[in-house]
Amino acid sequence: MDDQPFIQVDPQIMLGKPCIAGTRITVEAILEDLSAGQPEEEILASYPRLTPESLDAAQTYAKRP
Q1: Spatial CB neighbours of 46, under 8 Å, sequence gap ≥ 6
Q2: pLDDT tens-place string over residues 11-61
């Protein structure tokens, strides 16, 4: 999956941390939720602007070297 349309890095948004495009939801926040064992369905419910595709993109982005 190409994560580029879903992930943005802007120094003026969340101090330049990678975020879901068009939101202030950081990749880091999503990964913390997943690491804590929160099911994907609950994460999606917690962040109404998050889509299954953007959740996948965050995980793909985190695996980049």
Answers
A1: 33, 38
A2: 999 999 999 999 999 999 999 999 999 999 999 999 999 999 999 999 999
CA 60 to centroid of chain Cα atoms: 10
Question: Would you say 18 and 27 are in contact if contact means Cβ atoms under 8 Å apart?
Answer: yes
> For residue 48, which phi and psi values (nearest 5 degrees)?
-55, -25
31: closest CA among 4, 7, 5, 2? 7
DSSP 50: -
Sorted by where each starts, the structural domains of the chain and their CATH numbers stand as: 7-62 (1.10.10.10)
